[in-house]
């Protein structure tokens, strides 16, 4: 393709993403970063009659609310010894050297505990084996910067060698208290187990237990991180949505829910990374992906999720992968969280190009990864073992994903040339033929179940309980994987024809693709895998003019009336289809109704994943 790749430079998270924090919450957050105390030369316990005042922390009173044992509420919450009560600070705090020593000691203590925002946390502390290879949140990203690939070339047998303990007994999920008192919802310590029991199986349904294992390891070792709050938000949203759908709970105001508070906390953490001079890591990128999922499923208006996508973009660019001539080599040497962050970022980047009518940000990377004979560097026989194929995460094969990315770029080029009055139809068709030929040259691929994606992770001795907590929903079999792959290939073809011939359902190529897709969707059958083909369902529905076919698509979307996705994401897809149908019928086919323009103008928050 002649179209140039867009600039891949990272963009920091906008300040508009920063949530509004209530006075009480803001006080708690400032207090949680306050310096706790140590033993001092003076008597730490003041008399209750010493006068109105508070515990002295960081040379000022942290609060004035006394609880039992002569401790203030802030110190009690932080689990530290209180400096005592009185209207004046302790005399020893007038000594600058002692104060400096005090601050350094406390900062080191809080850093080890992971309680200081912006400071590196030991994400992978040794839960099972103290001698295991440990990768911190900071060094894990640094290791994959350009010309600094030493960390990526380490032995893959030792990477990420940390295993979770049982959910219910993990202390990480029991230390926090409910964030918003008086608002119904899951208790804080219930959210993470609830996510893995009820929500995990609904997202990336082709990834299997390998993804479950990766997410749980991160959440259990960083319970106050952005990803943990993102998973809490999704769990709380699912619980609330389910209870409301069954009539067990009245709908709440969108801005006053527990799940929105978790979402705000996660985005607040991401916003603070750049504010404090840090860099996004793969853990921030994964958190951004799951916050995008929350944003879409909750039905929030606008395209605010695009700001979250910039977090993933920033990390992806920081790896230097867009500068590599052989990006596969870098992906091969990534650990499990890095591969997840990279593949999820690429997936959302490409599908966001459909929504925003623009080329994907990293199109040049995808051409090197997927291009050349249909799969490029990814077509080797070792891909199954290396876990690099995109369909193992999304169900969409590499060549179809590249075709969607190229078509988004072609649509952008066509619109630009049309505005300038210089569109060459011959050039347009030539470019389209190149995309179609690459898509048709599919590589031979094994769709049998892979041990890396479908079996419960093997745990060290004494740690098998956590695997039992993972959802045991049957993964996709070989037939399902092949069918979904064919659905995405035909969807890419249909998308291409809507760009080449405009959105006319009567065009023979468009009509043929619609009929083929309907047959494949019927062949797939209603199941949890419908959530993996939202883009094909939506595009097929938009591009059919047959009333019977429209009814088929609507019925398929409504087969799970109490489903999490049906109440959120799929409901918006239905609204898009019905708007396109109504508009097209009212105009009697006199002018094409561009489904992409409808999506961009009226459902700019709708990411069809």
From TrEMBL:
CC terms in the record's Gene Ontology section: nucleus
Q: Supply the InterPro entries for this chain.
A: Fun_TF
PANTHER family for the chain: PRO1A C6 ZINK-FINGER PROTEIN (PTHR37534:SF20), TRANSCRIPTIONAL ACTIVATOR PROTEIN UGA3 (PTHR37534)
Name under which the protein is recorded: Zn(2)-C6 fungal-type domain-containing protein
Keyword Zinc on entry: no
Using the UniProt record, give the first listed, main subcellular location. Answer: nucleus
Listed Polar residues bias regions: 1-23
- This protein's UniProt keywords: Nucleus
Q: Where in the cell is it found?
A: Nucleus
Domain of life (superkingdom):
Eukaryota
Q: Where is this region: Disordered?
A: 1-50
Q: Does the keyword Nucleus apply?
A: yes
Q: Cite the record's Low complexity compositional bias ranges.
A: 32-48
């Amino acid at each position: 393709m002649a179209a140039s790749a867009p600039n891949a430079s990272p963009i920091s998270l906008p300040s508009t993403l920063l949530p509004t924090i209530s006075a009480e919450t803001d006080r708690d957050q400032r207090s949680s970063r306050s310096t706790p105390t140590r033993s001092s030369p003076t008597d730490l316990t003041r008399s209750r009659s010493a006068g109105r005042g508070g515990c002295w922390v960081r040379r000022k009173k942290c609060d004035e609310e006394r609880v039992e044992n002569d401790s203030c509420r802030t110190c009690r919450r932080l689990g530290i010894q209180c400096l005592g009560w009185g209207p004046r600070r302790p005399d020893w705090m007038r000594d600058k050297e002692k104060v400096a020593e005090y601050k350094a000691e406390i900062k080191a203590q809080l850093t080890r505990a992971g309680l200081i925002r912006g400071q590196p946390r030991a994400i992978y502390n040794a839960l099972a084996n103290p001698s295991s290879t440990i990768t911190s949140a900071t060094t894990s990203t640094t290791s994959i910067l350009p010309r600094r690939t030493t960390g990526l070339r380490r032995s893959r047998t030792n990477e990420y060698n940390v295993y979770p303990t049982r959910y219910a007994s993990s202390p990480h999920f029991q230390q926090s208290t409910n964030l918003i008192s008086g608002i119904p919802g899951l208790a804080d310590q219930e959210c993470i187990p609830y996510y893995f029991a009820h929500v995990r199986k609904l997202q990336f349904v082709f990834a299997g237990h390998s993804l479950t294992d990766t997410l749980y390891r991160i959440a259990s070792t960083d319970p106050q991180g952005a990803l943990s709050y993102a998973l809490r938000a999704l769990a709380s949203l699912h619980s609330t949505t389910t209870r409301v759908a069954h009539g067990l709970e009245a709908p709440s105001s969108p801005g006053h829910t527990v799940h929105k508070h978790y979402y705000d906390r996660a985005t607040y953490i991401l916003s603070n990374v750049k504010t404090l001079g840090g860099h996004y890591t793969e853990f921030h990128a994964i958190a951004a992906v799951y916050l995008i999922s929350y944003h879409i499923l909750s039905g929030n208006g606008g395209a605010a999720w695009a700001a979250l996508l910039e977090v993933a973009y920033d990390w992806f660019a920081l790896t230097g992968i867009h500068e590599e001539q052989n990006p596969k080599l870098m992906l091969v040497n990534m650990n499990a969280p890095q591969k997840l962050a990279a593949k999820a970022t690429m997936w959302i980047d490409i599908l966001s190009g459909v929504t925003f009518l623009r080329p994907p940000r990293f199109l040049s990377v995808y051409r090197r990864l997927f291009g050349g004979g249909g799969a490029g560097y990814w077509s080797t026989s070792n891909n199954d073992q290396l876990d690099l194929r995109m369909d193992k995460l999304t169900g969409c094969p590499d060549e179809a994903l590249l075709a969607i990315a190229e078509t988004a770029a072609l649509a952008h080029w066509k619109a630009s040339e049309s505005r300038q009055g210089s569109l060459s139809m011959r050039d347009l068709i030539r470019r389209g033929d190149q995309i179609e030929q690459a898509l048709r040259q599919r590589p031979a691929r094994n769709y049998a179940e892979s041990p890396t994606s479908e079996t419960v992770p093997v745990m060290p001795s004494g740690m098998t309980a956590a695997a039992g907590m993972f959802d045991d929903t049957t993964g996709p079999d070989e037939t399902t994987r092949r069918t979904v792959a064919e659905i995405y290939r035909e969807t890419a073809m249909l998308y291409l024809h809507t760009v080449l011939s405009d959105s006319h359902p009567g065009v023979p190529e468009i009509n043929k693709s619609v009929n083929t897709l309907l047959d494949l969707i019927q062949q797939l059958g209603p199941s949890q895998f419908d959530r993996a083909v939202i883009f094909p369902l939506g595009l097929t529905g938009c591009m059919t003019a047959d009333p019977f076919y429209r009814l088929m698509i609507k019925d398929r979307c409504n087969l799970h009336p109490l489903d999490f996705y049906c109440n959120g994401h799929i409901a918006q897809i239905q609204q898009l289809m019905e708007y396109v149908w109504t508009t097209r019928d009212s105009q009697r086919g006199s002018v094409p109704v561009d489904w992409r323009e409808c999506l961009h103008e009226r459902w700019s928050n709708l990411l069809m994943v």
